[in-house]
Structure formats: C-alpha cells, structure tokens
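Working notes for the structural subgroup meeting. M.R. asked for a predicted model of this chain before we commit to crystallization trials. I am recording the input and output together here so anyone reviewing the notebook later can reproduce the run.

Input as submitted:
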Amino acid sequence: MTRFDFTIAATDGAARTGAIAMERGVIRTPAFMPVGTAATVKGLRPTEVRAAGADIILGNTYHLMLRPGAERIARLGGLHHFMGWERPILTDSGGYQVMSLSALTKRSEDGVAFASHLDGSRHLLSPERSIEIQRLLGADIVMAFDELIALPAPREAMQAAMERSMRWAARSRAAFDSHAGHSGRAALFGIQQGGLDERLRAESAAALRTIGFDGYAIGGLAVGEGQEAMFGVLDYATGQFPVDSPRYLMGVGKPDDIVGAVLRGVDMFDCVLPTRSGRNGQAFSLDGPINIRNARHNEDQAVLDAECGCPSCAGGVSRAYLHHLVKAGEMLGAMLMTEHNIWFYQQLMAGLRDAIAGRRVHDFAAHFLARYRKAAS
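Returned structure, recorded in token form:
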C-alpha cells in the first residue's frame, strides 16, 4: 500500500510535472482539483468529473461539519462512499469559510468560535476539531488548520496571524499523528502564511519544515491582492519549501493565474471558478471567457470551443442552444456549461504537463496567454 509518494518526472525552469501516488490512485501534477464543497461537484456526477480528467477533488470541512455532519458521514461509510467518488479527496481545514461565511466569529488561541451561516448554532473549530472532522470524512489529504486574514493588512497583523497559524500547524500535526489508522494511509499538508511579506513567508516556511509535512500549501493569496502581487509572492515562496514535496496554491484560480503559477513551480490548485462560472453562464475557451447570455449568441451555431473534447463541444451542442437554456433558467444549461468548464481546466492541466515533459512550457504558456487574453466574448 502506498501512503504518499511524490515523484518529479521532468522540470522546465521552475515548472515541474510528476505524480502523487496514494492508496486510492495516482494524482498527475500539475493538478487542478474540482471543488466538491458539499459532497458534490455542483451539477456533475462523479463519473463525469472523472471523465473530464480529474484525479482528485476537494471537499469542504466547514460545510460538511454543519450539514450533514462529519459524524453522520462517518457512520454512512465516509465521504468517498457517501458521494460515490473512490479516488483521492483533499479536504480543506475550514478556516477560510469560518472567516468569510460565519457570523459573530471570535478568534482565540484555542481556535475560532463562530455562528453557523445556516441556523446560527454556535461551534468551535480548533486545530484538533478540524483534523478530527477530516478524519471522520476519510480524507486522503488533510490540511492543517490556519488563521487567514484579508489583505492588505498591517504587518503586525500578518505576523500575529502567521505565528498563530504555525502554532496551530504543530497542533494539527499532533492531532493527525494521534490516529494511526487514518494517518497510516493519509497525508497532511501544512499551510504557509505571511501575506505579501517575504520575511514572514520565510519564517512560516521554516516553521512548517521543522514540524514536517507531506506537502506544503501557499495560503493567504487570491484574497484581493491581484495577480501581479500574487506572482510576486510565488516568485520566492515556492523555493522556500523542500524540492521533493508538492506545492499547493489554495483557491486559485483563473486559467492565466494557473499558467503563471505553474511557471513558478506550483503543483496543485483548486478553485470554485469553473463550476460557479458555469452556473452563472460563463464558459472558458482558448479564446477567452464567453458570456453565453450575450445576445450575440442567440443564433450562433458554433460550439463553445472547437478544440475542446467535452461531450457538449464534441457532440455539437451550439452556443445558441446553451444561450437558450441559460436564459430560460433550465438546469441543463448550468450542467452543460459546468461540464465544459471542468473539461477546459483539465485539458489545460494536461497541456501544461505535456509541455513541461517536452521542455517547451514557456512557449506553451506564451501561446496560450496571447490567445486567451486577445479577446473575450
């Protein structure tokens, strides 16, 4: 049985391609994880997510602890069985949702006390409880609990949040290791914090390396700082982690964000954008985002992207039909748009992996970005 084995098959500059081998399957990197917030990648069956090329999905600790409850999912056989996805699942720690969705939060060294956004019930999410929930869910990759603050923020606030996150990382490690049945087959990732400050990022990375994790996430980005600032952090942050461990950029992002981050050495990504955009009438294509609600598409017989292999594009589903479905509020429109977007993201990742293996990733990126940014419909 392989618990966690990360291998790098090829590099091209800072970009890497390889694989993570785990008990439930191999994750090809760079990897994009579709987000299955509440035990579903919204609008798609698990078989459709897999057919698009996804090797791993993300589940959300905060949402699942509130509904239907981690203990209930455990009694029903764990998250994989519950939702019918038998490949790897990464669960986030719940920290971001606690900060962004909950009312009346109170942070302390113990954790974060908060009121549920669903019914106002009171909860405490601590490093130990976060790890317990992820264990009950049966996560393959578990995230340490951290404290996130919005940017921009004073350096003193960033430093205090980073230092507390590192104390919580050590507690997360101890909680994870205390259950050998789960830790013997799962992996634990630490999360770097420090905002846009290189010195704080370096201190955070050093603390995480001392504790020791299977992989390392770059947290606290994609929270309003902009692409240029994010790339500025990635220019040094990826190099602050062990070369032989995967690097995960949390909550990113747009296709051009992903391409730029891969060039800077990131191996893993997740974002709600392809599913949320699909439900709201936006599709991604090689020629830029498409707003299918736009009247120009109401008699357009073209598919969303002639080079896309998704069932809709390959099957000739027209923009005119999708325009009608979305404008009429038919659920099929959201489903087809979402499926296309998941395929687009997975095809982008496959293209990046092939380009890195062929040591032509910079040419691939330049061609992709020039075309993608040239025009938007």
